[in-house]
DNA sequence: GCCAACGTTGGC
DNA sequence: GCCAACGTTGGC
């Protein structure tokens, strides 16, 4: 069981869209390193959904509900996709600024390689971010 | 809107 | 197989 961070531009497809759809095919990934990560995705894995653009924060948690498979809409077998269902929105979105301010996240992939769209999250990182996301401020 | 970082493409 | 040119992404 692995943890992931999936980036999405909310004006294209947001966590809210995932909740509305209740299930989606996570497609459109073309980057080689991101595709390598997709090949390691397993049924039952969990993922943070991160919004890019004006939001720049972890918004929700989703669960992988398929093994990776070739995008049926494309002829390139390397273009793997997987199915995703929403779990829950974070009570407190965890912003990029917050993550960048944490000393233990200086080497986090999101900080070091902002352009990677599918990245692994270690269990320790998951726990820490999850804790921040479920902590209600105020 | 700008631009740094990165990936891809194509000429050699 | 190198590398310059170009395109894209995404933070600022």
The main β sheet shows up as: 7 strands, mixed
SSE string:
EHEHEEEEHHEH
Amino- and carboxy-terminal Cα gap: 34 Å
**Low-pLDDT residue intervals, each spanning 5 or more residues:** none
Tell me how many strands there are.
Answer: 7
- Which structural class fits the helix and strand makeup? alpha+beta
Assembly state here? single chain
Bin the strand percentage: 25-35%
Average pLDDT number: 94
Number of helices: 5
Helix content: 25-40%
Approximate shape: globular
Provide the gyration radius in Å: 14 Å
Question: What are the salient characteristics of this protein?
Answer:
138 residues, alpha+beta, seven-stranded mixed beta sheet, 5 helices, 27% helix, globular, DNA-binding
Structure report:
This protein is of the alpha+beta class and 138 residues long. The protein is 27% helix and 33% strand. Strands 1, 2, 3, 4, 5, 6 and 7 form a 7-stranded mixed beta sheet that branches. The longest helix has 12 residues, at 123-134. The chain is globular and about 45 Å long. The relative contact order is 0.23. It binds a DNA duplex (12 and 12 nucleotides) through residues 7, 9, 31-32, 52-53, 56, 96, 113-117.
Describe, in short, the structure shown.
This protein has 5 helices and 7 strands; from the N terminus they run βαβαββββααβα. By secondary structure, the protein is α+β, with helices and mostly antiparallel strands. The longest helix has 12 residues, at 123-134.
